[in-house]
Write a structure and sequence with these properties.
Helix content: under 10%
Number of helices: 2
Shape: globular
CATH topology: OB fold (Dihydrolipoamide Acetyltransferase, E2P)
């Protein structure tokens, strides 16, 4: 099962009819016991996790490479990335049990390992609350909003991409021993 996002996405939540500021569509998903969101305009597709090709000598939050339509994408384990201890899961998640969010190729060649997709929400800009952070996922959450009695954290995708590329997220890098 997979979903493709684009400009023709339908509004899945009925609006109140009132004119508000600009509205942006967010994909809401779970990682561990928390709910996160990313703007759907950055997402190419959501799919079940299939085969992962492990890579040596990379940080624990990089699970390996996945193949999407003959294009390699680095698979980032958001659970390991967002927790304070930043330890990887005990090996790659079993194929078919987890889901992946594949960013649009124009954004970057990254896929995010998540637990499940829970909703798609149209959120007006004024409903986003700026987040002050320390600790868990520091710097990677830009804002939050309330949705169906849940507190949703909005990931700052560009900061996530920059941190992965620079390797600045992990405080201590693991060493590879064959």
């Amino acid at each position: 099962m997979w979903y493709t996002f684009g400009v023709d996405d339908q509004n899945l939540e009925a609006g109140s009819g009132e004119e508000a500021g600009p509205v942006e569509k967010y994909l809401i998903f779970t990682v561990g016991d928390k709910k996160y969101a990313v703007p759907s305009k950055l997402i190419g597709e959501v799919s079940a996790l299939e085969k992962v090709f492990p890579l040596p000598l990379v940080s624990g939050y990089i699970q390996g490479i996945i193949n999407r339509y003959s294009i390699p994408y680095a698979l980032i384990d958001l659970d390991a990335l967002l927790r304070d201890d930043r330890e990887p899961r005990s090996g790659p998640a079993p194929a078919g049990l987890a889901k992946i969010i594949v960013l649009k190729e124009s954004v970057d060649k990254l896929a995010l390992l998540i637990d499940d997709v829970t909703d798609i929400a149209d959120i007006p800009g004024e409903a986003l609350l700026k987040v002050e952070q320390d600790g868990e996922g520091e710097g990677l959450v830009q804002a939050s909003f309330e949705w169906k009695e849940d507190h949703i954290l909005c990931l700052e995708v560009q900061k996530l991409i920059d941190a992965v590329k620079q390797g600045t997220i992990k405080k201590e890098f693991e060493t590879y021993t064959p």
